[in-house]
Structure formats: structure tokens, C-alpha cells
């Protein structure tokens, strides 16, 4: 079957009903709405805890389930970026997600049982988690959520409130550990960082680096906020000869001279000094 398994909810034995006639499968089923109820959870290519981490799902995101397995895994598709895979059953709740009004706008923030910073927090959420705000404290410092918890008001923003400086958003994650497949302040990979930064700018970008290398508009000369695409890697140009990226070279989000990154890629790929290290430069376009 000629399709991208990351973005197409289809297997030889099972596929989404809307794909009937487009892919071959033993049976087709309607999807069932679920939503994420934990801070974040793994999305894997196989229903195994030891399988590699393809991506992560975040609190409040919608997830369409096509298979509810007896082994504790669900197979389905994430609404945010269309990613398909297996997630732990305990991470989701059946039913549509509460209609989100806000999102977590900082790398990491706590939810509290009451609007009191001295009380022990309940959970910690990462940027991109989706929230339904139902009210605010009298002094405006806290927002009440549909789940009965509270978040510091400055840590959340309406979904239509954008931060156009993509680089500035990415730089908020400086020092965050590198994690293959990660999308949170607990651990993030190169394409996850780019996707999150673009999301805060109101731009819905694909999840993986190879998909981002075809996203937006191709340009010859990079400027601040452009995506520098390398074999299996992406970085954001800062406009001053440096880049910000999540890199396995130092296992963290860092800033480094673009010349150093280019030299490292050339050395790893056996490229001549006059050969371009980048495979593409993409200028993000399109509002979500």
C-alpha cells in the first residue's frame, strides 16, 4: 500500500471508513472520539512500551480511535497534526474533548486544585496543551478550567493569540533535554521544537523533519524564522549567523553558529567543503 503510515490510519487488516476505496484493508471502521487527559503520553508505531517514540500527545488534544485493543493500547489519529499510531488507553478518555478556548503558552505550567500558589499542584502541562477556561479569580491572576483546576493566568493564552516571532518562542526551550519524538518541555526533538514554535505563531506545521522540508515556501537565502533543513534534521535560523535547534549533538535545545552546524553535517555526510550542508531552506507560510 503506497501511503505514509504516519499520516494515514490504515493497516492491512483495518482502516478508517473514510479511506474505503482508496486503500486496501480487510475491514473499515468509523472512528470514535477520545481526548487526552494526562499531561502528555507516547505515540508509538507499535503497541509496545519498548517501541520507539514517534511523537507525543498533549493534554486536551483530540484523538480519533479506530481500534480499542484488549492489551491496553488504542490505535488512531491525532487531530492536531494528523499523526497516526498507538497510545496507552489510560492516557485518554472516551468522548469529544472540551471545546478549547486557551492553550498553555509557556514551556511548562502547573494546574492547581484552587487558585492558591501555596497548595500542591495537581499536574504540570507543557506548551500546546489545550484548555477550556470557564472563569477567573477576582483579582484576575488565575483562570478556572472546565476540569475543575486552575492555572496562573499569564501562563495561558487564547487560541487566537499568536506570537509571531518563531525564534523567540523556540528560545524559551533553551536547555530542554533532547528527546527523540518529544513535544514537551520535559524533552523535545528538532522537528517538535519547530512545530511548537510555529504553532504559537498561528502556523500549523507537520510533525517530522522530512515533512517540514516540504512545508512552506522554498527560498535561497535564509532570514530569521526560516527552517534550515538538513538530512534528518531541522533548525531555525536566528538571522544573525546562528541557529536555535534541539540537537542530539549536545542532547539539548541550544544556540550555535550555523557554520559549525554546517561543518558538522558535512563531516558526518562526507560532503566536500563547497557542498551545501542544507537540503532546503523553507519559509513558513499559512495560518492555522
Which structural class best describes the helix and strand composition? Answer: mainly beta
Uncertain residue ranges: none
Rg is: 20 Å
What's the structural domain tally? 3
How are the strands of the biggest sheet laid out side by side?
A: 20-25-21-22-23-24
Mind telling me the CATH class of the largest domain?
Answer: Alpha Beta
Question: Residue share in helices?
Answer: 10-25%
Count of DSSP strands? 25
Strand content: 25-35%
The first-to-last residue Cα distance is 30 Å
CATH architecture of the largest domain: Alpha-Beta Complex
User: What are the secondary-structure elements, in order, as H or E?
Assistant: EEEEEEEEEEEEEEEEEHEEHHEEEEEHE
Q: What about the largest sheet?
A: 6 strands, antiparallel
- Give the number of helices: 4
CATH superfamily membership of the largest domain: endopeptidase domain like (from Nostoc punctiforme)
Domain NlpC/P60: 160-277
Protein name: Peptidase P60
InterPro entries: NLP_P60_dom, Papain-like_cys_pep_sf, PG_Endopeptidase_C40, SH3-like_dom_sf, SH3_16
Organism: Zavarzinia compransoris
Give a quick precis of the structure.
The chain has helices at residues 166-171, 190-200, 209-212, 258-269, and strands spanning 15-16, 28-29, 32-36, 40-43, 55-58, 62-68, 73-78, 84-88, 92-94, 102-104, 108-112, 123-126, 130-131, 133-136, 142-145, 150-152, 156-158, 183-184, 187-188, 217-218, 227-230, 233-237, 242-247, 252-257, 280-283.
